[in-house]
Write a structure and sequence with these properties.
homodimer, 548 residues, Rossmann fold, eight-stranded mixed beta sheet, Metallo-beta-lactamase, Chain A, alpha/beta, Ubiquitin-like (UB roll)
Amino acid sequence: MTSQTLTWTPIGGLGEVGKNMMALTYGNNILIIDAGIMFPESDMHGIDSVLPDYGFLRDRRDQVRGIVITHGHEDHIGAVEFVVKDFPGVPLYATPLTKGLIEAKLREAKLMDRATVNSVGVDATFQVGPFKVELFRMCHSIPDNVGVAVTTPAGLVVHSGDFKFDHSPVDGETSDFAKLAEFSARGVLALFSDSTNAEVPGITPSEREIEPALEHVFRDAPGRIFVATFASLISRVQQVVNVCEIYGRKLAVAGASMSENVRLAQKMGYLTVPDGLIVKLDDALKMPPQDVAFMATGTQGEPSAVLGRIATGKHPSITAQPGDTFVLSAHPIPGNDEYVHRIINRLFQKGANVVTTAHSKVHVSGHACQEEQKLLLSLVKPKYFIPVHGELRMLHAHKRLALEVGIAPENVFVVENGTTIDFSNGEAQLGERVPGGYVYVDGNSVGEIGPQVIAERASLARDGYVILVARRNEQGLVSGKPELLTRGWVFANDSRELIDRIATTIGEGLNGMGAASTQKLRERAVELTQRAISQETRRRPVVDAVIV
Amino acid sequence: MTSQTLTWTPIGGLGEVGKNMMALTYGNNILIIDAGIMFPESDMHGIDSVLPDYGFLRDRRDQVRGIVITHGHEDHIGAVEFVVKDFPGVPLYATPLTKGLIEAKLREAKLMDRATVNSVGVDATFQVGPFKVELFRMCHSIPDNVGVAVTTPAGLVVHSGDFKFDHSPVDGETSDFAKLAEFSARGVLALFSDSTNAEVPGITPSEREIEPALEHVFRDAPGRIFVATFASLISRVQQVVNVCEIYGRKLAVAGASMSENVRLAQKMGYLTVPDGLIVKLDDALKMPPQDVAFMATGTQGEPSAVLGRIATGKHPSITAQPGDTFVLSAHPIPGNDEYVHRIINRLFQKGANVVTTAHSKVHVSGHACQEEQKLLLSLVKPKYFIPVHGELRMLHAHKRLALEVGIAPENVFVVENGTTIDFSNGEAQLGERVPGGYVYVDGNSVGEIGPQVIAERASLARDGYVILVARRNEQGLVSGKPELLTRGWVFANDSRELIDRIATTIGEGLNGMGAASTQKLRERAVELTQRAISQETRRRPVVDAVIV
């Protein structure tokens, strides 16, 4: 042990702690783990995606030695294109499938030549500056998922990454218990562990348990079968391939993202498909309904994904019809429920049958539940425990589990993104806060949209806008009736009379003012407009005025 | 049996079928059941509440003989003030607590003198035109809840209303099994039954099962306890009163709606409170933390309710602090999860402890699960079954249960709001569709906001607006640089340069046009603005233009 300090920093805003990005700092050396995006919350109006604000690392750009990516989900790789630009020359380390998915992203962003992505095995050990990095396989809902152990002179810290303990995963690759036990034998200073399901008792069922449910659907379905799931859930595709083989159906993949992932996974050997089983979408649509199945995306209610377009009758080639069976092989992420339910209702409306996790075990979580979280704690036996990958409520639930397992309360740190923890001489303590938060991506702007614009959009969403245009004559007096432009307040075509009445009232008010400065007139115009609108409609649209 | 037809009509739009209002028509006689509102879905921007569109009944106003209300929840009484105005002189029938809650509404709307609300017992029988109405008690999450049986020459139909079978309800009043059995003996032509939990296996736990969980919280809490639930959940208030008595705490009620309901329930004898147990909020806040508990609303994440204001630090007198325990005694309604989770996280952030149904049985549903739904079917033994009070996905799940119980598939009707069912000569068949849908209430407008305005608000929420103001000189030519007004697109104060550049581009484009009609200039201005904005920011705000 030296007296030098290892600092851990979870990066982001008020969302899940350390989910999208975290950093380890030792002296003048920084190791980044993951570079993902967060999905916008429903009141982040118009925002496309949300980046963790890693600005404080940009200021120490030349100290960043490497970036380790745990797995290929968007919330862990979605920010790679930004990171590559901000940390030129810094090597990335990723397991083969993860590397494949990262490169697909970089190719699309035309950044391939600016990135060094090293392919490393799921049990690789490599040195990055002063950090000895050891990967270890952990089960999750995508192949080639790893946890990360880092040895520095300040001690050994272990990060679970996203994980579950699946003893019978579809690809046969279980979590690396041996390595976890070995870390424990070496002495683990701190464990960072996935808290997603810390409020859920018991054990997450094995992926394998989905197969009987799928077989049941395939046995009974009178017509076409559509299985919808996440584009990256390769094991689910494998399971559907398996039941297609058993029940003699061909399989077609609908939608660009899923087709691309299936192609990549097949090419790289993560998906085993009998020759001729996968057919083109157009060909599948011409086959007898009982001879074919489809895979698609859209389980989160996204209106532009394949399932959403089928449900609303907007898919160019697929029309839902009586006899069809739709399987929603996913859980709705909180916030999406309403939209998912709407899709299910619409499919029922078209006469199709819909099977969800409410009826049958057609999906399981990719994250550990309470008993697995306790198992990890018992296996690793860390001195300090830091629950990560969750909102505060989940971290607190995870803390309760750690106390049950016997970790001392003062050795559990529940912190928010931006709060660092310093490890020194085998002891941990809260470090300083680094500036952080989230950066909004909207169109081609990164970080230009802030809380003010979001607040403006929220006002506009509530009551729309009214703009008043008034004209001054040569004497500087407002004359005549001003014009009102509006959207989202009333439907202008149906409300001519109301608009006219309000314009007249405001016009009279302004005329009565006599000559005044443009600024004064404008302020008064806004005030009169707000008052008239409130009196007539009890609403408060965004109001602005131009005096010409 | 005569050959005359009894027609059943569920009224509303694409939401839960027959939830807010339904009608029975026999000859020239109409009986309305319930007059509730729907809560706006998250993409109904700015809408305050949503009424079922009962316009087709307004056209037959003089045929409406009476309105029976099943219970006092907003989704069953929220439209009473509109119904009272639209059907003057038509009597309402409600059980005592329901009547009390309706009258509180009518008083606020200054409509007391225009309504006749008859108080009827929970097992009352009364005649409304040709309809013999028999009420029967059913358990739910509010006292005095009833189902409605209606006998006409066309047969006996039974409507469950919202229900669960609670064998040990807090107020001791169980569902009226005797009457249900008696209906069965008389022969039930059709049963309409609550489908809310048709996807949930088993039996909804009794309200009574909450008490141990509450006692546990009260035993362990080191400081103040806040129990949040629905303002109308009188039995939950009774349970909190009971544990306060056991653990020697005083109780204060925060928030206007809950205070009013507690006062009403106490006055009417639905709530038994030992003298001196309930104290004023201000007094409670001065007591030692371990001597007091609070009840509040806000379990759905509403920012303006008591819980939301405490969580965001905006409550005038209550500040969350370490040692406080918050109990969320409710389930989040789908669509509200995100906001509820945010409140929980914020309370943890302030050092408080939070107990939800994820940790402990502090809430149970007010609706029957699958085994209770099957029990009702078995008790009533209807010839026809029509699942109601649910989205299509729930109705289909309920249909599956009915088939399991032995109802013939052709005797189950899954229909949407607006689709009528005709009963004649003991047979049922689909009737005609009546015009329906939902009516949006926004500010003081009822029905003026339609899908166009909602669509405008959705666009504004996404990317804001940009309004271009250009001036013509005396020659009719556009001259100089136009002005751009914007909100929600970019933050104007930070983006002067961008706005200036775009204005210059558009100005040059318009100058180049020469003289043209105002209409032409305006169209061109909108086009140029859209193009410039899209090129610069890849966004598509709402664009409008004024040529002065």
